[in-house]
Design brief:
The chain has seven helices and no strands. The protein is mainly alpha-helical. The radius of gyration is 17 Å and the shape is globular.
Length: 181
């Protein structure tokens, strides 16, 4: 790794922990699907629109939610990531997985940011038992990015923090929007 940072030892250890799992067919499928569903926040858009079935108010919420996901992505990918020039653990990811080749800096993870942003915002408009599922999806997507070797573990942690920080005003924006509908 050419850009050793203080977290490199942590990243290497976490990567080594995941290595035995990368040879299990079920893990390959889960990580491949999770990372694909994380591309462009696809999973979160789907959840928003599934929630909207049968309700114009929820459709408007889904459209507002999708717009917020786009804004979060723009801030992260065209703003925050440009502040860092961290290389990825591999250029195209681990050959055992199917994934799209990213074009931005490795730090912070956009998939992780989007996942935790979306999970937090969704908690503002859904009952609490669903929150567990949203965060389970978010953790799976975030972990998959290290699993497929397209991010370092510290990139994912940075993405979780960025998504959560951006999710706080997103949570309140959704609350405000719901009150307007």
């Amino acid at each position: 790794m050419s850009d050793r940072i203080p977290f490199s030892r942590f990243d290497d250890r976490f990567d080594a922990l995941l290595e035995p799992l990368r040879n299990k067919r079920a893990v390959v499928v889960v990580f491949s699907v999770a990372t694909a569903l994380g591309d462009f926040g696809i999973l979160w858009h789907i959840i928003g629109f599934i929630r909207s079935i049968g309700s114009m108010d929820r459709l408007n919420q889904a459209l507002f939610f999708s717009t917020m996901i786009g804004i979060e992505s723009l801030i992260l990918n065209q703003g925050i990531k440009r502040l860092f020039r961290r290389t990825r653990p591999t250029e195209r990811g681990d050959d055992r997985f199917t994934l799209r080749k990213p074009r931005t800096s490795s730090f912070p993870s956009g998939h992780s940011s989007s996942a935790f942003f979306s999970a937090l915002v969704l908690t503002s408009i859904t009952p609490w038992p669903w929150w567990i599922l949203f965060y389970a999806f978010a953790v799976t997507i975030a972990t998959s990015r290290v699993g497929v070797r397209i991010h370092h573990a510290s990139d994912v942690i940075g993405g979780v923090i960025a998504g959560t920080v951006m999710g706080i005003p997103g949570f309140f924006a959704m609350q405000w929007f719901v009150g307007q509908v």
